[in-house]
Design a protein that fits this description.
This protein is α+β, with helices and mostly antiparallel strands and about 110 residues long. The chain is about 20% helix and about 20% strand. The structure holds guanosine-5'-monophosphate and zinc ion.
Length: about 110
Amino acid sequence: MSQLDNQCIFCKIINKEIPASIIFEDEKIIVFKDAFPKAPIHWLFVPKKHIPTHMDISQENKELMGHLHVIVQKVAKENNINHYKLIMNCGYESGQRVFHIHLHLLSGKTQEEV
Ligand code: 5GP
Ligand code: ZN
């Protein structure tokens, strides 16, 4: 599987080909604001490696997936977010529309309504 997919909107954000409100970035993860927020805070935590769905995660991605969660916790703490909901849709029928895995972080007073 290639690192980036030139048809993928999140790969284009990772490549800085299209803009996004970037919150955090390291060599493996990018975090940016969802363009259509469903909560007062709605950020997307995206591995830079192009993995289409949760079902495509393999043994070789184990460390990356752990790192993703450590970064969620770090970015939340740095932004004084101490309660949040994490969602990863898998498959079109679940609501997935961007086929590059990402965790939605939702927070703020309306999160129970999400
Ligand atoms: P999914 O439905 O695949 O779980 O989530 C995709 C998310 O990406 C949606 O919440 C949608 O609002 C967001 N999104 C789609 N296109 C863009 C974009 O070009 N920029 C940003 N920042 N978010 C996007
Ligand atoms: Zn991608």
